[in-house]
Amino acid sequence: MEPLIRPLLGGLMIGFAAALFWILNGRVAGVSGILDKLTWDRPEGRGWRASFVGGLLVGGLLLRLFDPAFLEGHLQKTIWVVALAGLLVGVGTAMARGCTSGHGICGVGRLSKRSLVATMVFIAAGVLTVALISRVGVL
Amino acid sequence: MRLALSAFLVGLIFALGLGVSGMTDPRKVIGFLDVFGAWDPSLLMVMIGALAVYVPVYHFTRAWRTPVLESQWHKPEATGITRGLVVGSLLFGIGWGLAGYCPGPAVVSLMKFTGQPLAFVLAMLLGFFVARRLPWS
After folding, report:
1. A-chain residue closest to B84, CA distance
2. What are the residue ranges spanned by the domains of chain B?
3. How many domains does chain A have?
């Protein structure tokens, strides 16, 4: 049971945060959309988006203070593979208008058909990618 | 001001949840996606936990005319299964399986102060820009 407690507790916290955002601001807590608009859109709406990202970063610092192990894991990959992954995630989530948070939690939580499809597609694509990499042994 | 304050608080709790859940460890994410190998399904609990809170709250507040701090709801307007939705999610999933990061955990992981999360986030921001230039997104 122990290995399941942390993911469950973390999930409850994520759900609580997303629910709070919906109740208070009436918005979907979608990280990719917030980052995209904060970086490339006109200034309006930048204040709360910057605050949200600031909260993520301060939260990261707090995690480090509680227990450095929260922020230690990393993969043995070259920086170029990781950058390629980032590029794909950026293009993909912008095209799909959402990522794990906006589609996977908020959208699925609303029983949005779009988000259900998006979530099934990105999980399936992730599973196939990991399977392919471990079989072929590249990247 | 109140909108920014609540957004900050939400971002903060969100980040703590991502850290506690293990989503900020790309090795755990790859383990979750490795269904045909050494599968570690424990991250499924993240989605179950998050939905267990979000679903009842969302449906309970459907009767409300407005959110607490805003004069209207900002529910996503897009409907329909478009090519952009499917192709985009496919590309996102490939990137997710490649590096073990999705956008939220990648930003929180900037606080690891290592090269990988920084490279990932900068490339992702570039990717957002590239997508704006694509005719079909």
Report:
1. A95
2. 2-133
3. 1
